Amino acid sequence: MGRLRTIFWAHKVLELETLESFMDTSKEREEKITNVLVERYKKCGSLPGGDYVFDAVLDSFCDKAIWKKYLSGEVIPTYSEEGKLSTSAEREQIHPYTVNLIEALFPEIEGVFKNGPYGLMSVLQSNSAVDALEQFELNLAQFARETGYSKKTFIVPNAGDSIDSVEFVELELTWNDIRSEINREPYRIFDILCRFLPDIELDQKWTKDNEASLFLHIIAGYVEARFLKVIPHVYSNVPGVDAARLASIAIHDYEKGAEAGILYFERRYGIDRKLWFDRTLFGSNINVFDLARKNTLKVAGEVFPELQAFAL
């Protein structure tokens, strides 16, 4: 979990402002990084430990070797669950908490290390359906706020006297509508939340600009397969577990033709596809990604030979 968390976090940090050029080898690299951090330092006000702590952050940012290890998950940055910025030892022995200091300088990245992009890590670490659904709701609401995705239009049939007189009416669904519906029917929270998931386009090619939809759909599939156990899947050897939704987005969307999410994570973040199928990763006897892989291969392995990439 620490490795996945670090990889996602490191990429998101280096996407901030001009830090994308952090791994460049140009002579101006360190100067650019310094200018960005100094401006952020001025905006956030004083930090516990003052300039000494800031200098430690600056040294860390200018250490390209350590960031390569963060990007690969080889080294996990220091982090305080309590939100501390540094240890409280004497000045000469102060050790900054890298994650917390970066969050202080870049508040837009706050929570990404702990929770993952759009709450992926917080859901993967949930121990119950209640916790997982709460995280799903919180992060879907966050997505709606941050992206302006506050309305979703549905076209529903308006039945007339005969089938020939059916008209289609457009209905707008807002996040407030979702909350009201959940309050009325809390036992349907998962299905209601899924109605507000962003649409996946045909022939989807995942990019940095549209990956939020991928994270949210994988979260929905994981919650369903790990906790809800709503429909016993005909291909499942674990009674009561349905990983079809997870398989369709993480392994391969054989209905919509979208790129496999796990292959995108490998291409974009360098996360080895095998990591998702490690039974020890999620602290349970059932790895739902592995179940999704097996189900997908059985359903569509012959039709889509590229799925053999998941035949580990």
Q: In a nutshell, what does this entry contain?
A:
The protein contains 14 helices and two strands.
Descriptive notes:
There is one protein chain. This protein is mainly alpha-helical. The protein contains 14 helices and 2 strands. It has helices at 2-14, 29-44, 50-61, 64-72, 98-105, 112-115, 120-124, 129-147, 175-184, 189-195, 211-228, 244-251, 261-269, 288-300; strands at 151-158, 167-174. It has a two-stranded antiparallel sheet with strand order 1-2. A hairpin with an 8-residue loop joins strand 1 (151-158) and strand 2 (167-174). Helix 11 packs antiparallel against helix 12 (244-251) and helix 12 packs across helix 14. The model has no long low-confidence stretch (mean pLDDT 80).
Secondary structure elements and pairings:
Elements: H1 2-14, H2 29-44, H3 50-61, H4 64-72, H5 98-105, H6 112-115, H7 120-124, H8 129-147, E1 151-158, E2 167-174, H9 175-184, H10 189-195, H11 211-228, H12 244-251, H13 261-269, H14 288-300
Antiparallel strand pairs: 1-2
Helix pairs in contact: 1-4, 8-11, 11-12, 12-14
